[in-house]
Design goal:
This protein is 33% helix and 18% strand. By secondary structure, it is an alpha/beta fold. It folds into two domains: 141 residues, Urease, subunit C, domain 1; 305 residues, Alpha-Beta Barrel (TIM Barrel), CATH 3.20.20.140. The strands form four sheets. Strands 8-9-10-11-12-13-14-15 form an eight-stranded parallel beta sheet. A six-stranded mixed beta sheet has the order 1-7-16-17-18-19. A three-stranded antiparallel beta sheet has the order 3-2-5, with no helix packed on it. Helix 8 links the parallel strand 13 and strand 14. GO terms for molecular function: hydrolase activity, acting on carbon-nitrogen (but not peptide) bonds. Keywords: Hydrolase. It comes from Nonomuraea cavernae. InterPro entries: Amidohydro-rel (IPR006680), Metal-dep_hydrolase_composite (IPR011059), Metal_Hydrolase (IPR032466), MTA/SAH_deaminase (IPR050287).
């Protein structure tokens, strides 16, 4: 098994030892007690409590390894997972998503961001908790199948009388077992106050602050092994008042949680910000107290040198969403320059309605290709792309001490990719085989805290086809609910 830990040297034939839900050791097979000279490269040892057919009901005790011919010296109770021909990486971290949008894919296919939003808002206003739960199960299942063990979700529409939409997403994440960072979004500035969204989808400031505090109190778990952390996330400068941005930051810092919003995604946004606030987007955020190590922004496509330097100086992070930015014609973010100047960048698939079935593993390739298209062939390497999808994402979510690398003491969130199948095996470098591939290498195993989420390319915590069926159900239900409200949907698929 080839181990790419992201931090530290790569190991051509290595092992990863797991105890409880954490990594206990990483090293070459020659250092592992009990390894034999005739061992086969790629075995994975994982002594499990209550494992069934390779899936774990709880955390794993044992070791994931490379060449394991036999276990000795008290290790005879280990359950072995053969990782021959696999690449081991940290589980991928998705730092920007709108899971509810799984139900509205394909709308406004040829639109700018603002055109796409205007075409979508009234459809989204019909969503209920059932739509959100099913869409989240589909979206998170799709992410897990692309090697993702941790995902954020920015949910910012809360139509009245439609159930607990925030809790519906949490329920889906718990069922799947993925590590979840839901961000309680909000909008308080509708069209009547100069905002972009229609008034029907915005909330009052006092309602937003109360509901956000309630979501944190009900769901946020700050523990090291947490699978659920809540962030505070007003939607964007063109849908949120300055008062909400300021009070949201105060609430988040009082509660000890992180801040997230969209920023500098398009030139339309920049023009609107200049017209209404008199400054560019990053200047506006700085004025409102929204720069700092507890903040990460989505997109940040249109940044000046000064903007990037302020991000680096303050520890402010960015979630790069290359497919969505390309789909909406927003532009190409200056990722290679951001990294060179010391700013942190993670990856995000963005909402499925603006990226249609995008995989997080595929976003590594998109990020690499977009940067090279803009800056040349050395702009972003395969290993830098992998770091964006792992450690960069972990930093954005404030989880760099727990996630993002394969190191002793970190949580056992691990992806095993088959790089020995007929096509991938022709690529000399396993990391290149993962990042450059147009078709993702088969996912042999995905662990979150030692628990198996995916095995041999199939979901294990839920029925494999249940997530896909849930997504189709959410799509049908949302369109029906929208039609019931008098919103025509058939004409919204193209601008």
């Amino acid at each position: 098994m080839y181990v790419a830990p992201v931090a530290g040297p790569e190991i051509e034939s290595g092992y990863i030892r797991i105890e409880g839900d954490r990594i206990a050791a990483v090293g070459p097979m020659t250092d592992l007690p009990g390894a034999t000279d005739g061992a086969t490269d790629g075995a994975t040892d994982g002594a499990t409590d209550g494992a069934t057919d390779g899936a774990t009901d709880g955390a794993t005790d044992g070791a994931m390894g490379g060449a394991m011919g036999g276990a000795t010296g008290g290790a005879t109770d280990l359950t072995r997972i053969d990782g021959t021909g696999c690449l081991a990486t940290p589980g991928l971290v998705n730092t920007h998503h709108h899971l509810y949008q799984w139900a509205s894919q394909g709308l406004a296919q040829d639109a700018t961001l603002f055109e796409w939003l205007v075409a979508s808002y009234e459809v989204w206003a019909a969503m209920d908790a059932e739509v959100v739960r099913d869409a989240a199960l589909a979206g998170l299942g799709h992410l897990a199948l692309s090697g993702c063990t941790t995902s954020s979700d920015h949910h910012y529409l809360f139509p009245k009388g439609r159930g607990d939409l925030f809790a519906a997403g949490v329920e889906a994440a718990r069922e799947l077992g993925i590590r979840f960072h839901p961000a309680r979004g909000s909008m308080d500035r509708g069209a009547s106050r100069g905002g972009l969204p229609p008034d029907v989808v915005v909330e009052r400031l006092d309602e937003i602050l109360a509901a956000t505090a309630d979501a944190i109190d009900a769901h946020h778990d700050p523990s090291f092994s947490s699978k659920l952390r809540v962030a505070v996330a007003p939607c964007s400068p063109f849908s949120v008042s300055a008062d909400l941005m300021t009070k949201a930051a105060e609430l988040a810092r009082d509660k000890g949680v992180r801040l997230h919003t969209h920023l500098a995604e398009t030139l339309d946004e920049e023009r609107l910000c200049l017209e209404q606030a008199g400054v560019r987007p990053v200047d506006y955020m700085e004025k409102l107290g929204w720069l700092g190590p507890d903040v990460w922004f989505a997109h940040t496509v249109h940044l000046s040198d000064s903007d990037i330097d302020r991000f680096a100086a303050t520890g402010t992070g960015s979630a790069h969403c290359p497919s969505s930015n390309g789909r909406l014609g927003a532009g190409i973010a200056r990722v290679s320059e951001m990294l060179r100047r010391g700013a942190n960048v993670g990856l995000g698939v963005d909402g499925a309605a603006s990226s249609e079935l995008t995989t997080l593993s595929g976003e590594m390739r998109q990020a690499l290709l977009f940067q090279r298209a803009r800056y040349g062939p050395t702009a972003l390497t395969a290993r830098q792309a992998l770091e964006l999808a792992t450690l960069g994402g972990a930093r954005n979510l404030g989880r760099q001490d727990e996630l993002g690398t394969l190191e002793p003491g970190k949580l056992a969130d691990i992806a095993l990719w088959r790089v020995d199948e007929p096509f991938a095996s022709a690529v000399t470098d396993p990391v290149c085989a993962l990042v450059f591939a147009t078709r993702q290498p088969p996912l042999a195993r995905l662990l979150a805290g030692g628990e198996t989420l995916v095995e041999d390319g199939e979901l294990r915590t839920v029925a494999h086809d249940a997530a896909g069926r849930a997504g189709a159900r959410a799509h049908r239900r949302l369109l029906r609910l929208a039609e019931d409200r008098g919103v025509a949907t058939t004409g919204r698929f193209r601008s």
